[in-house]
Design goal:
Elements (H helix, E strand, L loop, with lengths): L15 E7 L3 E8 L2 E8 L5 H13 L6 E5 L2 H7 L6 E6 L5 H4 L24 E4 L2 E2 L5 E3 L3 H14 L3 E5 L8 H11 L5 E3 H4 L5 H29 L3 E5 L5 E3 H6 L7 H16 L4 E7 L4 E7 L4 E2 L2 E3 L2 E3 L3 E2 L2 E3 L7 E3 L5 E3 L2
Parallel strand pairs: 1-4, 4-11, 5-6, 5-9, 9-10
Antiparallel strand pairs: 1-2, 2-3, 7-8, 11-12, 13-14, 14-19, 15-18, 16-17, 20-21
Helix pairs in contact: 1-7, 2-7
């Protein structure tokens, strides 16, 4: 009787399983191949994260291609934190162009006399309204005018827009208008992130913010993942999600918002799995890298929250509940001018 075989025909025990995590300081590779297990650590290459990953794979496996490669990435997070995303436009219902800037009335620092708000990732000049309206119950109050959308596409082209976030009022109830506008803009070659797919929930600010962030990081993440999937030659390439699961390259390239906490989530998921195998189900996980340290509390299941904040902006995507401090193995401790001990970055 033959042993269990996988989708590519290899016996399960013969597959080369590889995990890769790109951090701010090091890129780590862990592999299992039959009875063999090993690790490889190389310096990260922030200017081109794929270079370190491919170098680590070549150093460890030579020309052998992985059967399964699971990848934890920080490309989306870094693009947001460093504001190095694509030139993005927000297309929304006329009259709601400033939702991104108005936000909510909460004040994170209540007694700050000079509070500052994070700058919107889409400037006012690229927040464009469409004269349409969907009612709260999904009924159409004002239909989309195809000629207006054609004119809008020309404006986007003239502005040199690289990615479009489409977020219409009440689209989470009835996405018909979003679908028709997205199809028209895609026919002009624009990558379009639509809110009823990215964040199908009420709350115009959070939905607009989440969709805009997805559009902002999409081109860089899509290029990076597709290049890695091709050059790694992995038979199956998976990307860690912020919620501790994994998805294929196609989904991750369309919805990079899911990978915002890709690397840290993988660390918590594996730490919880190791602890469970040892008989511990209530554990504190600690993942120290070169530049930051991630801590989580696991009580049976992975701790998750529905909303997180990246670069001061709300992102509505399920993620592992992780607390991060900006101090890691490579952080420098020093005494400042006032005699206080400081650590980091």
């Amino acid at each position: 009787m033959s042993g269990r075989r996988t989708h590519n025909g290899k016996p399960a025990g013969k597959r080369l399983l590889v995990g890769v995590d790109t951090g701010g300081t090091f890129t780590d590779v862990v592999f299992v191949h039959g009875t063999r297990r090993g690790v490889c650590k190389v310096p990260s290459t922030p200017d081109d994260p794929a270079r370190a990953v491919l170098a680590a794979l070549r150093r460890t496996f030579g020309s052998q291609a992985p059967d399964v490669l699971t990848y934890g990435t920080t490309v989306a997070t870094n693009a947001m934190l460093e504001r190095r995303g694509a030139k993005t436009a927000l297309v929304t219902t006329a009259g709601f162009e400033d939702v991104l800037e108005i936000g909510r009335q909460d004040r994170p620092r209540l007694y700050d006399l000079e509070p500052t708000r994070p700058q919107p990732i889409v400037p006012r000049s690229l927040r464009m309204g469409v004269d349409e309206r969907m009612c709260f119950d999904g009924g159409v109050d004002k239909p989309v005018d195809p000629e207006e959308i054609e004119s809008l596409a020309q404006r986007l082209e003239k502005a040199g827009v690289e990615s479009v976030a489409l977020c219409l009022l009440h689209a989470h109830v009835n996405p018909a208008h979003e679908k028709s506008i997205a199809a028209a803009l895609r026919s002009h070659g624009f990558p379009v992130s639509v809110s009823h797919e990215i964040c199908p929930e009420p709350g115009e600010y959070e939905r607009s913010s989440t969709t805009s962030v997805n559009a902002y990081v999409l081109p860089a993440v899509a290029r990076h993942l597709r290049r890695l999937a091709k050059e790694s030659r992995a038979a199956r390439f998976r990307v860690m999600q912020s919620n501790g699961g994994a998805i294929g390259v196609g989904i991750a390239a369309r919805e990079p918002i899911r990978t915002m906490l890709s690397g840290p989530a993988g660390g918590v998921a594996e730490a919880a799995a190791v602890a469970a195998r040892a008989g511990f189900h209530r554990v504190i996980t600690l993942d120290m890298g070169g530049t930051s340290t991630d801590v989580a509390f696991v009580d049976g299941d992975l701790p998750r929250r529905p909303v997180t904040e990246i670069g001061g902006l709300p992102v509505c995507t399920p993620c592992v509940d992780i607390h991060t401090v900006g101090a890691g193995g490579g952080s420098i401790a020093f005494v400042d001018e006032g005699g206080a001990l400081r650590v980091g970055p």
